[in-house]
């Protein structure tokens, strides 16, 4: 679930996402939620890369979904192989206007229409090492809790609260 703002200043939509990418994201989020996954958009990983969507299944599996909305979008982005180091399963998600044969066979494939999505190809499992699983799960939990707190502060009309950008990105300064 994304944070809703009456001021149309959702910090999870930073201008990098096109309307099409947001449509794909919305459908995939709905599908994953129906599958009983906890879902977070735009999670910064330990490598510094930012996953479009990351989910945690009720069995503890970590999935990353990379959204691609055009052939060009796929061709210019070569960072996606790094996401395997942070997930048990790696998927691409797209819409019907993108040829499906451009996506690698060794990744899962999801087709979204904005109202829902379907897994066209399951992603092979690449189980994370326990220390990596722990690190990703803790990052997921910290950011999810921070965004929930942010939503509460946003609903509080009295103002105040923590730095929104730090909560949204998951980047925090280490205590001295």
From TrEMBL:
Q: Which domain of life is it from?
A: Bacteria
Q: Which Pfam families match?
A: MmcB-like
Cross-referenced InterPro entries, in alphabetical order?
MmcB-like
Record-given protein name? DNA repair protein MmcB-related protein
